[in-house]
Amino acid sequence: MIPLLGSRSARPWWGLAILVTLLAAWIPLLPLLEPLVRFDRLSTMLDTRTSGLLWRSVWISTLSALLAIAIGWPYALLSTRWKFPGAGLFRLLMPLPLLMPPLMMAQAWFGLTGMTGIGATIFTFGLCYAPLPALLVARSLGKQAAASFESALLVSPKLGWMSMLRISLLPALIGGGFAFLFAAGDFAVPDYFATVGNLFHVYAAEVFGHSRNADFTAGATASLPLVLLGLLVLLGNARLLKSQLGFESGVGRHAQPTSARGAAKLWIPLLLLALIVVLLIAPLAQIYFETGKQGPLSERGWSEVSRTAFQEGITRGRSSLVRTMQYAGLAGLLCLLLAPLWAHLILHCRNRWRSALLVLLCLPLLVPSVALGFGSILMFNQPWLDSFYSSLFLPALLIAGRFLPISVFILLDIMSRVPDAQEETAELAGCSYLQRLFRYRLGGHVSALWLAAGLVIAFGARELDFAILLPAANSSAAVRYYNALHFARDNFVAAYGIILVALLFLPVMLHAWWHSLRKKS
Amino acid sequence: MRNTLAALLPCLLALSCSDSTTSSGGADLVVYCSLDQDLSEGILADFETRTGLKIETQFDVERNKTVGLVNRIIAEAKSNPRADVYWNNEIAHTLRLKNEGLTVAYRSPSADGIPASFVDREGHWTGFAARARVILYRTDRKGPVPNKLDDFLDPAYASGGAMAQPLTGTTLTNATALSLIRGDQEMLDWFEQAKAAGLSFGSGNADVMRRTCNGDFLWCFTDTDDAAKAMEAGNPVAIRYLEQGDGDLGAMLIPNSISILASGKNQGAAQQFVDYVLSTEVEQRLAFSVSQQIPLHEGVSMPEGIAVPGKDYQVMDVDWAAVAAAISDRADAFQEAFVK
Description:
Chain A is mainly α and 521 residues long. Chain A has 27 helices and 2 strands.
């Protein structure tokens, strides 16, 4: 290991990344490959009913992604490029809706407004995934070269605006692409909103229906259209990333936020406040209200019920929270190491290899996670692997493998902007591969690395379908949350949801606090 | 960056060393449990205290509606079986395990007194602590509340009511049992007519119960455990049992079921556990819980207000083996009828 640390060649490290990914992402996929590629069944699979479901999934997910962009893009633009009191707080709150399970957001908005149907589904997905374009746009704007922005601004304010919009368009679309993927794979939210009025379903419900069969591989087969659709979106994202390179530079001074003047000093914070109320405060307030909600005949008061719910959330759910943080944290740490190696490898690949590697890397994200869980059982539940199968490492590896593409996309975006010359100079100076990668490629972008790992932790903590199937993940917070939801322990569910969100948000706040301290010093 | 990476290694080690495995390594018994986690945890903990045995438990959730653990047992059995006991909060999928040859016969002395219709003739499973399928209706609003299943087809009733889609859980079991009585196509037609009459279909029993409590519906077709929670939370609701006239079908009763898995490594401990869970003490405990599960042993004391099956209301006769044999095909047919 020690000689490897000092190695100047990238190959051993890339080999290590491929080896770990093999274990984390590709081995569990092996039992699914044959059922997944039953192309002959595609024609029979897509009859009038299922084609209708697929088409509905496509347009619901497209509208959800567009709404996510419509919310996330202006939010990021206003909160990162203007100076006004509270701007830091708005930036801090940006990722929080992503930490809320979409079903929790759906329940909150149903409780607030009674909304149902397809419109409510699109609204919920749009809110939940708005942070994805917002975070990517914020990162991109933070790296805009000061020279180009200031030159545009000198010509006219309109041109300044245009330069910001141009630089942030592609990150917004990339974030929208991810929002599309997550919306298309979710059946719980449409299912929840389908009760009143016209019953409707999406294609993910068809996949889930097949996953219930004795032959669980039927779920993988049924997911083929969604997998192909997802691949199209991700490869499209990769192309957008490449196009983005022409716009930005990772070196030199970056454009700084401008002080808001006149009416803008008022309307910018007001608009952001309105957005954060819709994204966060209103749903959280509703969920908080539900911690003590009782019927009109109840003899117990709201505060008594709420207090009991929070106490139970902490006493009964504490160990599950710890377990979730352990394996999701471990997955995040793994991605801190794996994602830079993969991003660097893809960056240095020839075009055709690049596409092939991206497809391989993205497959675990695209197949239904319940199928991935069963794949893991078949591959790893062997007598001689008993300790590994029961350990925290298995869920951590699977989460890292499943959500690695998101981290890789973020880092690929960052690394592409750093001139190759910087790394080549370091190589000539005798720097080891790790030094070149982490100091010269990523040195100025530590926050992107944390964002990449943070997203893996957030998505890992929310992961349910394979958590049920793996011994060490079964006692997780997600399983306890959904178990209580099934058995109608609504006060507990609300309190536990708030505790979980607060716990996930804690590292984000600590990081922001640490970052601001460093900036001041 | 170097400092960051230097900090990562200890973090990684700390995380991996802190309880890096589940308790299965040292467990005396592995139980897969589909019942409410909060409810069953106390029972499992008491068993551990009494016997000194250490249990590893794995739970299920709504999204998988019991099938997650059943499929997991089947998948794990292929190479390295792990579970000793399966405690299911319904019954049809326990029979699926029996049909797969994954359960072993065991006649628990604690099962004495449980009606024969809830005990497998060969001893592979035993039913206990049941739920009934009932109408939960609002008492503060006027409107027609069904007495019979076919009332669901009348727009006057249907427009104010809701039930879960028959895709999973007890609703699927109930719909499968009715298909066996009425005929497959007739049951599909029944659902089409109910939809046409204005009946709403929710994602689950708890979901339609919540919406009835919120006032979106006058009534819903759900389980007694959801109804008990609605009443406990102080909602103005009451229960009605369907099909109670002369010659009517009666209300369907769906018990918890427990079975010992053939490949379990701890058969002795498994039998001890099954004896404990099937005891009148546990049935009484479940009856007095927030779910108010209905004891199947005679003479077990119950909270006031719980109706006694067979005495206070008629119970539907169900051929559980036939339900288990038909449930997968019915699930596919209902999927095609509803998921579109």
